[in-house]
Amino acid sequence: MPVRLPSSLKESPADAHRPQRRRLAALGLLVPAWSGVALWPRTGHAGAQQYENLADSVRSALASQIADTKPPIRRFDDDAQRQRYERWLEQMELRLAPRLPEKRNRGDLLQCLDYECTRAGLDRQMVLGLIQVESNFRKYAISEAGARGLMQVMPFWTSLVGDGNVRRLFEMRTNLRYGCVILRHYIDGEQGDLFRALGRYNGSVGLAAYPNAVYAAWKGYWSYAEGNGKG
Fold it and tell me: What is the pLDDT of residue 227?
């Protein structure tokens, strides 16, 4: 199902010509150049997904998606598809370097993120923007509400659709799996309305601050167009 963006999240013709740095600064997603961490926020917008009673069929479907243990290895239809992936991986590793100095850590995260996003039918650049806003790529981040890890997953999900092991939310792959499955669930539940789905993910449904912050990171720092590596 296609994702709908409300008018508040769409760039106007005027916005398209404004410098990227001004748009990010307006949403608090740009730190001073002298800090040496340009384009990374000092604080995130991590909130908390709200517990909800799920129909048995929905809970079973989500649990099945969470439990899938196949290795996170993409299968490519042809060499051209593989080459596009490798170019994307190279570009994203460069952008992650300020936050994850170890090349292996960057590669592992991006490989897993690509797999989980493809599996859940999510835009990889959008999820990178969401992680930036939620945890700033801190694997062991914990919010005031208790949300954990890269995608700030609330612990109740582990009992609702998982194995109950809260500590595993600090594992990279487990956290990305939960986060992507939950976000897909919210998007489907909101019939493709990304504004409301992001609000539900953050526990602030109906408010613009969080969706706008994710959108700014997505279409700003993480923007990517095949061919030149830039948005």
Answer: 64
